[in-house]
Amino acid sequence: MYSLFGWKVAALLVGANVIASLCSNPLAHSTYDVNYSELKQGLSSSASIYFPEYEPFGAAVIRWSNLSTPTINVVVVPGTDSDVFVVVNFANKHHIPFLATSGMHGSINTLGRMDHGIEIRLNQLDGVDISTDGKTARIGGGIQSKSLIDKLWTARKQTVTGTCECVGYLGPGLGDGHGWLQGHYGLVSDQFISFDIVLANGSFVTVDENSDLFWGLKGAGHNFGIITSVKAKIYDLTHPNYAIDTMVFSGDYVKQIYQLANELWVVNGTMPDGLNNWSYWYYDPTIDSEKPVIAMYIIEEGVNVVNATHTKPFLDLGPLIHQSKNGTYLDLGQWTGISLQDGPCQETGNANPRFPIYMKQYNPDAQAQVYELFRNATTSDSSPFSDALFMFEGYSQNGVKAQGNDVSAFAYRSENILAAPLLTYVPTGPAVEQAAYKLGSKMRTILDQGANEGNLKAYVNYAYGDETATSWYGSQPWRQDRLRTLKQKYDPMGKFSFYGPID
Ligand SMILES: Cc1cc2nc3c(=O)[nH]c(=O)nc-3n(C[C@H](O)[C@H](O)[C@H](O)COP(=O)(O)OP(=O)(O)OC[C@H]3O[C@@H](n4cnc5c(N)ncnc54)[C@H](O)[C@@H]3O)c2cc1C
């Protein structure tokens, strides 16, 4: 919480700083040459305002990826839904750009287009209110995935969330949102029933299926407003127990592994509702000093041992390491290295670009070609990318496909695999940035050519940022037209255009 005294001092200091910079950056004037006491007076007592001179500011703007980050001059932490309404109207009145944040894991480089403005940090809006019939919940717009999972779990309930414990719930959900339970229920966004949202014009409205905006908010939702809360479907906890088999292979088996995955789950079969498969490539010299390994995770719900029909074909290939575990849904984050304690949940200062692509199936030849590039990049002595990770996510798609292709702005329900290299590096300057871009783009192009499906299909929530709106939201003209019409109607000035903007 800020003290009124501290806030006044901060405002004066900021004013002094700004006078010096007005000539060089006239836009900066619009951020500071305003009376923040006017904003403060309109906010609830549980709201906070942070200026750069005071410590909470630094912690409030730090992001998971340090590449092309937004420039923030002031952070406002709303305490209530109406505070969001107040701050958007204040920003509009003074022509100040603003950006909502929840989990701070957004990394698309279009965020860097924000060259000044207010961060509206939604973390205090983290309530979960379960309806009396137990079928829906009102969920705060700033809640983290893990917090939502835990609150529902206590009530013996669950819903589809992102898998990583530290990402926001709505950050992923507005761009569709993949999670362990999607095989049953569809995407995170398929659970949404209504949104309480502050729109670009400052109005505070509820959007449900009767509004044209409802379709766009589910898949391209970062473009239209700030969601203070969402009403979403929730479900009884029917299969709390889970089992996982982790097999770590030599990279020599790259073709056979993905051929098998195709045969078992994609080309000759489908991934059952309660099964998910991920694989990671990474260099771990303690296992193989010469090349990156391939770790396969086969995760099954409602069992204590993963069914041998899924594991035996892989075990027959002879993994270097094989481990079986069982526990509950709550263990999945730790088993797959994405719990609150794991690396991906820490802010390291690294740049973390990804180059995502959706694919219908694996192309084993393309996988092998990309593996070679990845091997060179992670093992050569002078490479800055030795900590890179290549992710292949094979979620169950049944619940996603059951919804029908056109129900939302998410265009890629017919795809089965989400792949992305994560080229984590220490951001030492443009040379390494360009090297990462070149390598990531090259690897993605090989997979894209191997998939041979035409327009690149990229998950907006993993996107690098150089992709086009047709790659994020689908190339069919009707999709682009519908999104452009919504954008023109609800955000004609492009106030919500820092994250995967619709053209
Ligand atoms: C380690 C890691 C694991 C991931 N795991 C998954 C996963 O399992 N499934 C998946 O689908 N994706 C996953 N992602 C991708 C994830 O969807 C995006 O990174 C997403 O942007 C993260 O949202 P956030 O709230 O954490 O980040 P933020 O940077 O806080 O938010 C991202 C953007 O969302 C918008 N936003 C957030 N909250 C609101 C709101 N209430 N109203 C309006 N706009 C809002 C803003 O435009 C903001 O710029 C993962 C990413 C990482 C880094």
UniProtKB/TrEMBL annotation:
<dbReference type="GO" id="GO:0071949">
    <property type="term" value="F:FAD binding"/>
</dbReference>
<dbReference type="InterPro" id="IPR016166">
    <property type="entry name" value="FAD-bd_PCMH"/>
</dbReference>
<feature type="signal peptide">
    <location>
        <begin position="1"/>
        <end position="20"/>
    </location>
</feature>
<dbReference type="InterPro" id="IPR016169">
    <property type="entry name" value="FAD-bd_PCMH_sub2"/>
</dbReference>
<feature type="domain" description="FAD-binding PCMH-type">
    <location>
        <begin position="67"/>
        <end position="237"/>
    </location>
</feature>
<keyword id="KW-0274">FAD</keyword>
<comment type="similarity">
    <text>Belongs to the oxygen-dependent FAD-linked oxidoreductase family.</text>
</comment>
<dbReference type="Pfam" id="PF01565">
    <property type="entry name" value="FAD_binding_4"/>
</dbReference>
<dbReference type="InterPro" id="IPR006094">
    <property type="entry name" value="Oxid_FAD_bind_N"/>
</dbReference>
<protein>
    <recommendedName>
        <fullName>FAD-binding PCMH-type domain-containing protein</fullName>
    </recommendedName>
</protein>
<keyword id="KW-0732">Signal</keyword>
<dbReference type="InterPro" id="IPR036318">
    <property type="entry name" value="FAD-bd_PCMH-like_sf"/>
</dbReference>
<dbReference type="InterPro" id="IPR050416">
    <property type="entry name" value="FAD-linked_Oxidoreductase"/>
</dbReference>
<keyword id="KW-0560">Oxidoreductase</keyword>
<dbReference type="GO" id="GO:0016491">
    <property type="term" value="F:oxidoreductase activity"/>
</dbReference>
<keyword id="KW-0285">Flavoprotein</keyword>
